[in-house]
Amino acid sequence: MFQGSIVAIVTPMIEDGSVDFDALKTLVEFHVKEGTDAIVSVGTTGESATLSMEEHSTVIRKTIEFAGGNIPVIAGTGANSTTEALELTENAKAAGADACLLVTPYYNKPPQEGLYQHFRKIAESVDIPQILYNVPGRTSVDMAPETTARLAEIDNIIGTKEAHGTVERIRQLVALCPDSFLILTGDDGTAMESILAGASGNISVTANVAPALMHQMCTAALSKDESTAREIENKLTDLNSTLFIESSPIPAKWALQQMGLIKTGIRLPLVGLSENCHADVKRALGKAGIEI
Prior knowledge:
Layout: E1 4-8, H1 21-34, E2 38-41, H2 53-67, E3 73-76, H3 82-95, E4 99-103, H4 112-125, E5 130-134, H5 136-139, H6 145-151, E6 157-162, H7 167-176, E7 182-185, H8 191-196, E8 201-204, H9 211-222, H10 226-242, H11 250-258, H12 278-287
Parallel strand pairs: 1-2, 1-8, 2-3, 3-4, 4-5, 5-6, 6-7, 7-8
Helix pairs in contact: 1-2, 2-3, 3-4, 4-6, 6-7, 9-10, 10-12
């Protein structure tokens, strides 16, 4: 169920920063049409850090409603408080999410045993498939592959999103974890190489604006058709870097605005894309064949 191109979907907002549910419905339908393999709702790209608990759960519920069973929905339910993560995970299960994605606790920098106990408690408390999420660049904590392998022994922890940013980390996880354990990359720039090295797919920012190309690239890489995968990857290379020219999801939201899919809303402390970055993002969109 969870392989290929999985979009870490933005949370569209109107100018005052409130959630635009009409645009969210448009985005979900866009991804179904373009071949995206699954959606992550309210992950980092979905501005989870600045949504209230109620908004967080409502966006997940509405995303599931708009998907209508046509595309799997993975709910982002991580937090740096185990209690909050538990509540969000329970809410996602009640809403009908297909799985949950739980980021390593940020800011408080738990040790490896703390990470293990955090994820173990949530998994044992809420009976829903759960995917770990390691993104040290955002959280200032790096979950060791050996800790991930320990957690892989828990039945409903089914996989991990690894955003360490190196293919070598993917190889380590492939070597340490059971064959049935899902390994997803969370780094667009190394997604093709990661899939060729054994990952099952990519949880992607780039898929927000180039869903068809990302789906095609992942499909080719999963089929070990390296020449086709590289041909498509060449069209995405600039986007993969330019969509991080400022803090994500700032560039992706600006690109989607230019594509006419969402309005200009983004929530403080994030702001709109700096004007001096507009031309770079436009060029990257053009290289990927995206009209604006």
